[in-house]
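User: quick one, sequence for these C-alpha cells?
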C-alpha cells in the first residue's frame, strides 16, 4: 500500500475493484446521511494521507487498510453518492507524477470461502509471502536504471529516482542491456520477523515516510530491501521470469516463491510463513498463476493474482449501539454492540467498556469506527475511535446514583438487568444452593410476570411455574430446585442478597441474631462502626424486610 498519493486518484481505483466485502451489510442510511458519512470518511482518509506525507503515523497500517476497505464498501452500497467528488478540507501536497508503463493496481483481498471459489479451474499456481512494504516500479533502458516510481494511483506514480544511490537493494545496472519494467515491494529490513508474534508493525510506514524525504542517509538506504514480485514484460512462466531476474542482478530468494497444487498446500504455506522468521513484515500471502494476461492501460486489480491476509491484530469495527448492564450491587458496565467483526480467529459482536467514565472519554456513537484488540486474556477491548459519523447522536447515560446495593428489587425496564443479575447470583452465591435456574429460566419467569419482585420465587407453586410456559416436568424440576435455599443459613442468605460485608460475618450467624442485632451488635462482629451501620441499614430496608418476611412465612408453611 502506498500512502503517498492523493485520495481522489486512489478512490477511482477502489470503485473499480470487485466487491470483496459482500458479506458485510450495507448501512441503513437515508441518502443525505449516507452522503455526509461517506464525505466525512473520505476527508478522514485524506487527512491520514496528508499526515503520512508529513511522516506522522496517526493510525497503524492495518487499521488504515480496513478504513479504506470500509470506504470502498460504503461506496458500493451507495454508488450514486460515492461518484460525487470529495470536498477538500486541507491542502494536500501535489507531487509530480509519471505514467507507469504497466499499471500497478493493488491485489484483491479474499477470505477463505472466496479464495476457494477463485481457485476453481486454475492451474500452475504459486504462492509467496505478501510483503508489507511500499509498491514500486523500476524502469530500465538498455540495462540502465532510469526510473523508480511509486504505485501512486496505479496509472501515475511519483519518482523516487533521486534516492537511487542510497537504495542499494535496487540494481543500477543490469548484466544485460535490456529495456524492462520490474515491479516489487520496498520493505524495511528486520531480523527474524515473525508476524504471528508482532503487534502493530509500522514497517510500511517507515519506508513510506523515508521515501518521501528529499534525501536518505546511507544507513537508511541500507535498511530498505527489495522484493520483486512481477516482471510484466518478461518471460511467459514464473520460473523463467525469476531465473532471468536473478541472472540480471536482482536478489531472488527461491524459498519465498513456492508451487502449490491444492488447498491444503496453500493453507500450510500461509501458516508456515505466518509463524516463521522472515526478513520483512508480512501481512498475508499472494496466490498467482504462472502465466498471466498483462494489461498496459487502466488500473484494474489483476485477475491472475489475489491476496489472503493474515488475521488482523487490530480490527476495525462498526458500533451498532450501546447497552448498559447493571450488576447486582449497582455497578454499571457499558456494553458496546458491534457489527460482527473477525479478530484473531474470533467473531466479536460486543465489547465491555469498564466504566461510564471511559465510555464518555471515547465519545462513542452509532456507526462509529473503532479499533479492537485482544488483551492478554484474549478479551476484546476498544483502544480508540478511528472515525465518528457526521451526525453522531450522543448516548443517553444512566445515572449512577439510581443504582446501588438497595436498588431494583422489583422488575421494570430500568431495573431488569440489575434484578436479573441479582437472581442469577443465587446460583453462584456460596451456601445458597439455588442451582437449578439459569438466566433463560429467570427471564421466562420475568417476561411472563410470574415473578416481579426478587422474593416472588419463594411462594411459587409447580402450577404457577407451569403457567409461565414450562412443561409439567420442567415445572416440577424447577420447583424442587427452589427448595434448598429454605434451609440455607442466615449468613448464606445475606451473601445471596449481596449485603455489604456479608462474607466477613461468622457462618454460625443465627436467624435470631439477624432479626434482633443492633448496630452495636454488628459492630462487635465486624470491628467497624461504619461497616456495622451499612449492614444495619441494608437489613432494615423495606425490600429486604419483605424478603425475610416471605422466607419466614414459607418456612412456617413448610413445617
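Assistant:
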Amino acid at each position: 500500500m502506498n500512502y503517498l498519493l492523493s485520495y481522489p486518484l486512489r478512490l477511482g481505483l477502489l470503485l473499480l475493484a470487485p466487491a470483496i466485502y459482500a458479506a458485510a451489510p450495507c448501512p441503513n442510511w437515508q441518502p443525505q446521511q449516507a452522503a455526509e458519512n461517506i464525505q466525512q470518511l473520505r476527508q478522514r482518509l485524506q487527512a491520514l494521507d496528508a499526515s503520512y506525507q508529513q511522516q506522522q503515523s496517526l493510525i497503524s497500517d492495518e487499521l488504515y487498510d480496513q478504513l479504506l476497505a470500509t470506504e470502498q464498501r460504503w461506496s458500493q452500497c451507495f454508488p450514486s453518492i460515492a461518484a460525487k467528488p470529495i470536498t477538500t478540507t486541507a491542502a494536500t501536497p501535489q507531487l509530480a507524477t509519471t505514467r507507469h508503463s504497466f499499471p500497478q493496481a493493488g491485489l484483491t483481498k479474499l477470505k477463505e470461502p472466496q479464495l476457494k471459489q477463485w481457485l476453481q479451474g486454475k492451474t500452475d499456481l504459486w504462492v509467496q509471502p505478501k510483503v508489507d512494504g511500499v509498491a514500486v516500479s523500476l524502469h530500465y533502458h538498455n540495462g540502465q536504471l532510469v526510473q523508480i516510481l511509486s504505485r501512486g494511483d496505479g496509472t501515475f506514480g511519483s519518482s523516487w529516482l533521486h534516492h537511487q544511490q542510497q537504495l542499494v537493494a535496487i540494481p543500477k545496472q543490469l548484466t544485460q542491456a535490456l529495456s524492462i519494467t520490474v515491479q516489487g515491494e520496498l520493505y524495511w529490513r528486520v531480523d527474524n520477523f515473525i508476524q504471528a508474534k508482532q503487534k502493530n508493525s509500522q514497517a510500511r510506514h517507515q519506508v513510506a515516510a523515508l521515501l518521501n524525504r528529499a534525501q536518505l542517509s546511507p544507513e537508511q538506504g541500507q535498511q530498505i530491501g527489495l522484493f520483486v514480485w512481477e516482471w510484466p514484460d518478461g518471460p511467459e512462466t514464473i520460473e523463467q521470469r525469476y531465473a532471468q531476474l536473478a541472472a540480471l542482478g536482482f536478489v531472488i530468494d527461491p524459498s519465498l516463491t513456492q508451487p502449490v497444487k491444492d488447498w491444503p498446500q496453500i493453507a500450510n504455506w500461509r501458516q508456515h510463513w505466518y509463524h516463521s522468521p522472515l526478513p520483512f513484515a508480512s501481512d498475508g500471502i499472494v496466490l498467482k498463476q504462472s502465466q498471466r494476461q498483462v494489461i498496459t492501460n487502466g488500473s484494474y486489480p489483476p485477475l491472475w493474482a489475489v491476496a489472503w491476509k493474515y488475521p488482523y491484530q487490530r480490527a476495525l469495527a462498526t458500533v451498532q449501539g450501546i447497552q448498559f448492564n447493571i450488576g447486582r450491587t449497582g455497578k454499571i458496565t457499558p456494553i458496546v454492540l458491534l457489527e460482527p467483526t473477525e479478530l484473531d480467529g474470533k467473531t466479536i459482536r460486543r465489547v465491555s467498556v469498564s466504566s461510564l467514565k471511559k465510555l464518555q472519554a471515547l465519545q462513542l456513537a452509532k456507526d462509529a469506527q473503532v479499533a479492537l484488540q485482544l488483551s492478554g486474556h484474549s478479551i476484546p477491548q476498544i483502544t480508540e475511535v478511528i472515525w465518528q459519523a457526521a451526525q453522531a447522536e450522543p448516548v443517553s447515560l444512566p445515572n449512577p446514583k439510581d443504582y446501588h446495593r438497595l436498588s431494583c428489587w422489583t422488575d421494570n425496564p430500568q431495573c431488569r438487568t440489575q434484578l436479573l443479575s441479582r437472581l442469577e447470583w443465587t446460583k453462584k452465591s456460596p451456601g445458597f444452593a439455588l442451582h437449578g435456574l439459569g438466566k433463560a429460566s429467570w427471564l421466562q419467569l420475568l417476561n411472563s410476570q410470574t415473578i416481579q419482585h426478587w422474593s416472588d420465587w419463594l411462594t411459587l407453586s409447580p402450577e404457577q411455574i407451569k403457567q409461565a410456559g414450562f412443561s409439567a416436568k420442567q415445572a416440577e424440576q424447577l420447583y424442587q430446585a427452589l427448595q434448598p435455599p429454605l434451609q440455607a443459613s442466615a449468613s448464606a442468605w445475606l451473601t445471596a442478597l449481596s449485603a455489604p460485608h456479608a462474607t466477613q460475618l461468622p457462618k454460625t450467624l443465627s436467624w435470631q441474631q439477624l432479626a434482633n442485632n443492633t448496630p452495636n451488635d454488628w459492630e462487635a462482629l465486624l470491628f467497624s462502626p461504619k461497616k456495622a451501620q451499612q449492614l444495619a441499614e441494608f437489613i432494615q430496608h423495606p425490600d429486604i424486610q419483605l424478603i425475610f418476611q416471605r422466607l419466614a412465612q414459607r418456612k412456617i408453611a413448610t413445617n
